[in-house]
Amino acid sequence: MKVTLEMIDELRSRVNVTYEEAKEALENNEGDIVQAIIELEKQKKNYHGHRRQKREHINKDANRVLNKFLSTDFVLRKKDKVYLNLPFWIVALITLVTMPFSLVAIVLFLLLGYQMRIVTGKKTKFDINKNVDRMTKKFKETTDKIFEESEEMAEEESESDAEESSDGEDEITIE
Fold it and tell me: Annotated region Disordered: where (predicted)?
């Protein structure tokens, strides 16, 4: 069946596609507009599914890199004795903030025979959502506790003020 411009326009009015995509879908389905719409919708679902898979793959790679970075340590040792074992990200941050001092310290440690190693391989799992949720929960618990204690203190203060004013007489003593 020959595909006409009217058929292509009809298909394009129902599905957001280019003229070329509409023509190809109509040719593949022998001019049947309904079948062409179904085919194009299936293609669109596959496209969104592919994008979701790609996004999930990127997220998994980012988590893997982050976990690797967070499980890397900086170790300062001399012979068999370890003098410093810190997460690498902390050492990197300190080095950036205190650059001149850090460079002098590195040279000094090397001259004194210390070994500096970057060690990976610890198996740690860092789930940022879980940690943020945990921090939010702790923050909420702490603020709730502070508010409760301040309310209790205010009640105690108002009770003590009420007791003092119920004595009937106010005394002012000047010595």
Answer: 146-175
Domain-located, residue 26: yes
Phi first, then psi: give them for residue 102, nearest 5 degrees: -65, -40
Q: How far is CA 94 from the centre of its chain?
A: 23
Give the neighbor-by-neighbor strand order of the sheet with 73-78. 81-87, 73-78, 115-119
The size of the chain, in residues, is 175
Report the alpha-carbon distance of residue 74 to residue 54 in Å, rounded: 34
69-89 residue pLDDT tens? 888 888 888 888 999 899 988
Retrieve residue 23's tokens. Answer: 């023509």
Inside any domain, residue 174? no
Angle at 68 between CA 67 and CA 74, to 5 degrees: 115
Bridge-based pairing of strands 115-119 and 81-87 is unpaired
On whether both 43 and 87 belong to a single domain, the answer is no
Write the pLDDT tens digit of every residue in 91-137: 999 999 999 999 898 888 888 888 888 888 755 444 444 565 677 77
Residue 169 lies in a domain: no
User: In DSSP terms, which residues pair with 87 in a beta bridge?
Assistant: 73
Domain extent, residue 19, equals: 5-67
